[in-house]
Structures are given as C-alpha cells and as structure tokens.
Amino acid sequence: MDEIKSFFEYKPEKNTNEHFAHEIFIFLYLSNGINMSDLLRLKYKNMSNEKLYFIREKTKNSRKSESKTVELILNERTKEIIKIWGNPNIELENYIFPQLEKAKNEAINEEL
C-alpha cells in the first residue's frame, strides 16, 4: 500500500508525456484495472450518469454469460483525468482518450 500511495502522491512535471502516462495509469487503477485495450476503445457513448459501460474486448465474442457489460463508477479523480486529458469534443462517437488511439496507430506504423 505504501508503494501505491507514493505513486498517487508523485507529481510529474505538468503537461509532459510522463504526466499523461502517470494519469492514465491512475485511471486504469481506479477503474478496477481496466486493460489498455478496453481503455483505447472507450467512447463518449460509453459514458452515462457518471459511469462507464463497455464489453471487454477480450470476451466480446465469447458466450453471452462471459461477455457481460462492465459498469465502472467514475469518481472525482477519474472525472478529473477525463476533463484534463480527454477529448474536448464530447460527441458520442468520439474516443474519450484519442491521444491513446493516435499513439497506438503510430506504434503499429513503426512496426510495419
């Protein structure tokens, strides 16, 4: 618990890649360990009444009993992270964290 506490208390330099990565890790942690694949796919249409709803990418093609909708409650910190780092254009089809989608595409292009 001391290590987790020190991670949460750590203050990276504002508006840097390190700051963004730190905040995304905190978002993942506070969102019941949502994996990066699911985080990349979150769109504003997945948000409602201060909650996020999604079907895990890993299980979406599984039997119905295994592919249930996950419900995450947004707390003050996760809402703050979305406000600071999320897409300001909150149209329903827009990704919440489009910079992650951009980074994923850049990494794929580098591999090719």
Tell me what the structure shows.
The chain is mainly alpha-helical. It has one domain. It is built from 5 helices and 3 strands. It has a 3-stranded antiparallel sheet, with no helix packed on it. A hairpin with a 2-residue loop joins strand 1 and strand 2. Helix 2 runs antiparallel to helix 4. It is globular, with a radius of gyration of 15 Å. The model has no long low-confidence stretch (mean pLDDT 86).
Could you give the topology of this structure?
Blueprint: H1 2-9, H2 17-30, H3 36-41, E1 47-48, E2 51-55, E3 69-73, H4 76-85, H5 98-111
Antiparallel strand pairs: 1-2, 2-3
Helix pairs in contact: 2-4
Major sheet summary line: 3 strands, antiparallel
Overall domain count: 1
Elements, N to C (H/E) = HHHEEEHH
Radius of gyration over alpha carbons?
15 Å
**Assembly category:** single chain
Strand order of the largest sheet: 1-2-3
Task: Catalogue the unreliable spans.
Answer: none
Estimate the mean pLDDT confidence: 86
- C-alpha geometry: globular
Straight-line distance between termini: 41 Å
| Classification by helices and strands | mainly alpha
Give the fraction of residues assigned to helices: 40-55%
Question: Approximately how much beta-strand content do the residues carry?
Answer: 5-15%
How many beta strands in the DSSP annotation?
3
Treating each run of at least 4 consecutive H or I residues as one helix, how many helices?
Answer: 5
